[in-house]
Design brief:
The protein is mainly alpha-helical. It has one domain (about 1-175, about 200-385): Growth Hormone, Chain: A (Up-down Bundle). The chain is built from 16 helices and two strands. The chain has helices at about 1-30, 35-65, 65-85, 90-115, 125-130, 135-145, 155-175, 180-185, 195-200, 205-235, 240-265, 270-290, 295-320, 330-355, 360-370, 370-385; strands spanning about 185, 190. The chain has a two-stranded antiparallel sheet with strand order 1-2. α1 packs antiparallel against α4.
Length: about 400
């Protein structure tokens, strides 16, 4: 039940993460947003995600996973509903920031809960599979956005993205086991939670934390550049807007479908080889997308292939992060890694925007992010030599 509820939380984390991106063209048109206003509104959610991940991870260790997860689900659910009721730029800005705060806070908690609810030998494969619900949620958001072709209003995306997380939170109140007592107490009294600096960098954890942060930053940089810019890049390669939406759906579905397969491979005895294979696959996939011709079926296949490796690499990092921190400090460690990764989600789209504004082609942008793939892969490869916790 815990894994099912965490998967539901991950599903609508992915849905709400992409809801504004797929609704953006109609939101901008309805409210006549300037480029500056749209930029502030879209950036507000990212800032909220960054802050929420750090705060939510720390709260997980201090007051418990269950309480923090339910609170953050309610926050982003309610604020998604209020986004659907927005009447102008100011209300949109406020609601997107608060939605991001809730989304960011939820992630370290359902990652940690999933890991702690799974036998140690199966954690990487199972948690990767749970996290595969995120790109599936992103694909759902992209699919709902296609409803515009039959007259659906953009606000429907936010009604769905608000109501289901609230229902999930209500179910968690009754059905989710509360691990807080096991987290913060022993037969001799409460466990003393380490300070933030000691949690992240004490007891030989400095190198592990640095490698995790580098892996998260560069991998999410590439992932969110693709999530935000893939439709525009595909249009730049000569396809229609509708075809571009379908390539985005295939990218997310490829990531969700490939996650379980990659998770099993990374959980085996040849993890280092599979880390190299995964990041090499990312580089090959980006080259393939940059090289697609105007055959739509080829474009769909290339984008699905890219999703398998780019989304898969990030989901595996999500599954690995809890394994490097003991149970009393796991939320803080995972939350910090997720927060640093969120900085990559800011840099990636900006990098693409700067290149396109400077006259670069879609193919040049796709090839230009391969060095970031190599940096993220190097960090993930080095991480395989770091000790994991037995808790």
């Amino acid at each position: 039940m815990t894994l099912a509820l965490c998967a539901a939380a991950a599903l609508f984390e992915g849905f709400d993460n992409q809801s504004m991106g797929v609704a953006a063209p109609r939101v901008i048109a309805e409210f006549a947003l300037s480029t500056t206003q749209a930029t502030f509104i879209f950036t507000a959610a990212t800032i909220g995600l960054f802050l929420g991940a750090g705060i939510g991870g720390r709260c997980a260790d201090l007051i418990g996973r269950k309480r923090t997860l339910i609170t953050t689900l309610l926050l982003f659910g309610v604020c998604s509903l209020l986004t659907a009721l927005a009447v102008g730029p100011k209300s949109l800005l406020t609601m997107r920031f608060l939605t991001g705060l809730g989304l960011g806070g939820a992630m370290p908690n359902f990652i940690s809960l999933s890991s702690e609810s799974t036998p140690a030998a199966r954690r990487i494969s199972v948690v990767t599979l749970i996290m595969a619900a995120m790109p599936l949620g992103g694909a759902m958001a992209a699919a709902v956005s296609l409803g515009a072709l039959v007259g659906w209003n953009w606000r429907l995306i936010f009604y769905i993205g608000g109501l289901v997380p609230i229902v999930t939170a209500m179910l968690m109140l009754r059905l989710l086991a509360d691990p807080r007592k096991a987290d913060v107490a022993t037969p001799t009294g409460p466990i003393q939670i380490e300070g933030l600096a000691s949690t992240l960098f004490g007891r030989d954890r400095a190198a592990t934390t640095a490698l995790l942060w580098a892996g998260f930053f560069f991998t999410q940089l590439v992932l969110y550049l693709m999530l935000n810019w893939l439709p525009s890049l595909v249009i730049g390669l000569g396809f229609t807007r509708s075809q571009a939406s379908w390539t985005s759906v295939c990218f997310n579905l490829g990531g969700a479908a490939g996650a379980g397969f990659l998770g099993k491979l990374h959980a085996g005895n040849h993890r280092r080889q599979w880390v190299l294979t995964t990041y090499a696959g990312m580089a090959v996939a980006l080259t393939a997308v940059a090289s697609i011709n105007k055959v739509f079926a080829v474009a769909l296949l290339a984008c699905a292939f890219a999703g398998v490796f780019i989304v898969g690499a990030q989901l595996i990092l999500f599954a690995l992060a809890p394994l490097y921190y003991g149970k009393p400090i796991r939320g803080t460690g995972v939350g910090a890694a997720v927060a640093v990764g969120r900085l990559g989600t800011v840099v990636g789209p900006i990098f693409a925007g700067v290149l396109l504004a400077g006259g670069s082609s879609s193919a040049a942008v796709l090839l230009g992010i391969i060095p970031f793939v190599l940096l993220g892969g190097s960090a993930a490869f080095a991480l395989t030599w770091r000790n994991q916790t037995d808790e």
